[in-house]
Amino acid sequence: MAPYFVFPQNLKSLEEENDDNRLHVLNPTDVASLRLPEVEEFVKGVSFDLSDKEIFCIEEQEVFDNVYSVVKGFSSLTPSGKVNLVESLRSNLSVLLPNVDSLLRVSQGQDDDNDNENEPPPVLDRVSSYRNALKIYTFFLFSIVLSEESSASSNNKTKMTGTNRKKQLVHSWNWEPQRGRILNLIANSLEINLALLFGSTDPDENYLSFITKIAFGLFESATLIKDSETKDALCRIIGACATKYHYTAQSCASIMHLVHKYDYVVTHMADAVARAEKKYADGTLASSLIREIGRSNPKAYVKDTVGAENVGRFLVELADRLPKLISTNIGVLVPHFGGESYKIRNALVGVLGKLVAKAFKDFEGDVSSNSVRLRTKQAMLEILLERCRDVSAYTRSRVLQVWAELCEEHSVSIGLWNEVAAVAAGRLEDKSAIVRKAALNLLIMMLQHNPFESVLDGLQSDNETYDGGENHGKEQQESLTDSVPNLEEGIPQKDSSVPDIGNLEQTRALVASLEAGLIFSKCVSATMPTLVQLMASSSATDVENTILLLMRCKQFQIDGAEACLRKMLPLVFSQDKSIYEAVENAFVTIYVRKNPVDTAKNLLNLAIDSNIGDLAALEFIVNALVSKGDISTSTISALWDFFCFNISGTTADQSRGALSVLCMAAKSSSGVLGSHLQDIIDIGFGRWAKVDPLLARTACIAIQRLSEEDKKKLLASNGSRVFGFLENLISGVWLPENTWYAAADKAIGVIYTIHPTPEILAAELVKKSLSSVFICSGGDDLQNDIESSSADILTTVQVARISRYLFVVSHVAMNQLLYIETCVRKIQKQKLKRDKLGANGIKEDDTPKDNINAELGVSASEEAILDTLSERAEKEILAGGSNEKYLIGLCAPFLTKLCRNFSLMQKYPDLQASGMLALCRFMIIDPDFCDANLQLLFTVVESASSETVRSNCTIALGDLAVRFPNLLEPWTENMYARLRDPSVSVRKNAVLVLSHLILNDMMKVKGYINEMAIRLEDEQERISNLAKLFFHELSKKGSNPIYNLLPDILGKLSNQELKRETFCNIMQFLIGSIKKDKQMESLVEKLCNRFCGVTDTRQWEYISYCLSQLAFTEKGMKKLIDSFKTFEHVLSEDSVMDNFKSIITKAKKFAKPELKLCIEEFEEKLTKFHMEKKEQEVTARNAQIHQQKISGMEGCAVARNEGEVSEGSDIIEDGEINDPSMEEIAQSSDSEVNRSGEYSGTSSEVTDMESDGTEVQSKVASKSRATESKAKVESCEISSSTRRSTRSKQKDRTLE
After folding, report:
1. Residue 22 has what DSSP assignment?
2. What angle do CA 965, 970, 976 make, to 5 degrees?
3. Cβ atoms within 10 Å, residue 1004
4. Structure confidence by residue, pLDDT tens digits, 941-968
5. Which ranges are annotated Basic and acidic residues under compositional bias (predicted)?
6. DSSP state, residue 857
7. Which of 64, 323, 469, 894 could bridge 358 with an S-S bond, Cβ 3.0-4.6 Å?
8. Dist CA 712 CA 756 (whole Å)
9. Distance CA 320, CA 402 (A)
10. For 781-812, how does the pLDDT look when each residue is reduced to its tens digit (9 = 90+)?
11. Residue with the larger pLDDT of the pair 1156 and 941
12. From the CA atom positions of the chain, what is the Rg in Å?
């Protein structure tokens, strides 16, 4: 019998001799030293022996030595030699495997024949040979795999030149298929019945340990397991060894090692475990791994973050593949929810999600097992709900993601649905953006997969579902907010399988389902205010997902979704491209349909219901969509049909809305309006304008948006008619008062846009308006009455007509100014164009003299002439010529006198609003007029009773500051004072105006910025948000001006009567806008220095609070420690000390060991000084109390003495007793007591012992001083008692 084979530690170990009868190499051949022909001949001989002889020939010493030699020198073999050797070994092993089963049948037959024989059956020898051959073939094949993989990895690391790469390709052989075949063959060898070969159901440990060691080692190669055939073979090998042959403990340890170390093996290891459980119907390996993870220390995963993540992924993969098995072992993992590693908690949450979704489906069992199953599932769901409040934002986010997955798989019951919805709605206000994103996605998923589909008859995402049919529109009205009867009517139409209502139990279930659906709808509807806030979030993901949720809510007709989507429109101006694209996509999805009529109707309804801000956003979107072609020409045609009343049922409002959308589209496509000029005039200024007065205003906008060619056509064909309409609109009285101003504004603008000589027509309009005012009275009489503050004249002249006249004259003046600027720009463009054309040479008409003058600068430049002319033209609007004033200038004195008549203005606030608006416009035009009336303007803006007047004047101040900054600079404080106005609108406009001026560098940040800081805590949220936006944008300018302004703001806010909470919130926000470490470190020093010049305890507290809000660095802490002398005197205050403790607590978190030691010493020093200062305060207070008591006692004694003296004045006059020594003792004792009370080193406690005496307990460093102090107090007591005894004796003598 041949020697038995034992797996060595490595291939070379086979050459070592051993004492036992073990197969080893005796005569190895050094293949590497042979020549190439000799190597090929040697390999052919080995291959011939393996193929020609029996499969047991590998046991023969010569064959064994030769095979060992070629395997050892495998890297030196030629490609053909490698192929021959591998094929020979593999074919022999593949032939050996089926013979094992036949050997089993033969052995059973021989056992029956040789029951009585003593000699061992010959089959035992064959079994030993089979076992040896199996081991040897397995060993040599594995050795070849290791050799090739080692050489392949070394080749990958070596950088080859082009020549070497070509040589490598010539001499290379295709190893990957061979590797897969070898490993699959070895896996097959493990799956046959090896019980006969090894004498038991499990092979010997040497065999299993060798195979598993090689298999797990190969798993460490990321490139190797990318080959699916190789990976599957390794999974089969590991599964067979660990499960079939019970090599579980060692396999578990190796699997956990690989999972901890390599993230790319996680999925493949989970596949191996799942395949083993499925193939052998044995979950021992999976259970052992779960128990191994459960027994691990949760604290170990805190530092090993990579291992924690890999183990977590492995658990989730196992739960996905083996849900029922994992559900029976989940109890050992639950304690890890209390661990500090959020990655493990995330994984466990994912595991629970997989188990809830998969582990409890198709469960067969009795009633008790079903009850246990339901309780287990309920416990898992409760854990998932509890984890929504996890301390880690990552875990909270992961839980919400799991709930979304469960909703998508319809694994959440109706009974739990609303509880999950409430949790998701609450997480919308989470401080973490990733949690908010997950909550938004969860609500989207819950709406999309809600169990109330028969109730929530929502709109489908396909645009075809947005057809405008009436029947379909009625179906869309069914929503969660409908009443129960309506819902019951809708259910049979949706699902014919609804149970019979007559059955009481089914009816109850139906009602319960409807109630749950209604609660769900209300829950989602209640989130609308939060969603509006999220659309203003700084996080783009918040905005994008909020828009998606609102789209889904709109599809299901949730209450408030439509209004919230309207607030989405201003987001098109966002600088974030993703937000703009989200808004645009949502707009197209909701409002742009395949039916052009429906699209037109949606757009015009938006235009009708939108405010000014939404109209601007709508115009921006419409322009973009027209440019892209998303709003087609058919939609434009449908809009014209609505405007022209070609569609039945069209109202005047819809016609106006259609024209508004067409005006928006005209910005991108100038020819949109040109095809319907006559319709614009006939409908816009015709009878329909009286039905909807704003239609005339919209028609004016349309005329202004015409292209230059269309304007010329309009002037040629209908010019006089159009101007007649405009003149009638401005001077007529057929428009309502609230609409006339808006229409007249646009009408005057049209005149200055298309009229060739607009100033002539405008002058006629001013004259007509003036004549309408003075139709009942002369102008001189009116001015005289205004100067005399008489309001009687207004009984005959309507206030409304004066207001209209002031509006017309001021608006004409403003448009005249704009017209002059437009003319100047046209001339400049013409000059620039002419300069470009003549840039290549000198013009023919240029003379040498002109060229010389141009070089010397003698001739006046055209730019200077143009500037002079424009200034003169602007000046003439109000000031007129040198000798006379023109039409508008004549109105200026009248307007000034009118606005100065405060009694008249107070009586007619509407007239004051018009007058002040006209005055502000005149001031914008002329600097002299502005300077003369600034005092009047600020008087009105501060004292006017009308909120509208103050608000308009505040806005006008911004325009004046832009046009005449030098004139407004002395009034800066008055402008900031508008931030304190009691009116909300005035404060809001003041914030907007100042923000615009400061952020655009039109106004310097003066020392009144603290007024803007106070608006951070304004009672109106809108104003507070505007102030926050201002400081946020201000922090982006330069090197962050807030850093320089912060000390000044702190000082001024500290002196104002602000609530502590308000002050803290303001400073916290401002300090939070400072991000640079250097600025933070400098602020530490600046704030510490402020302690020196402050004596108010409240300011100490405020400064220390600001220090506690700084983001300290190592340098910052060192500066704070070095500045101890500046704030040591304020440490007696508890609130100040609390703020310093907060600084120390935060500093310890980031401090290095050396700095941490300094911080601890600093903390001890702070505590020590705090206690000493407290003791000094107690000492001073007690000394003061003691002094007051002594003074009180002496006062009583003096009072009694004076009484006695008055009673016995006769005796005292005869013989007065006076002891000078006693008086000196008393005086000295009083002075000594005062000085002892002032001594700062003592800590005294005064306790009342008796009514006639006081005990003084002193704790001092010097015993002699304590004794001296006590003696002085006793001398004081003696002197007082001596005086009392003397006075009593005198009284006795008197009585005698």
Report:
1. B
2. 90
3. 10
4. 999 999 999 999 999 999 999 999 999 9
5. 1265-1275
6. T
7. 323
8. 10
9. 13
10. 545 555 554 445 554 457 888 889 999 999 99
11. 941
12. 49
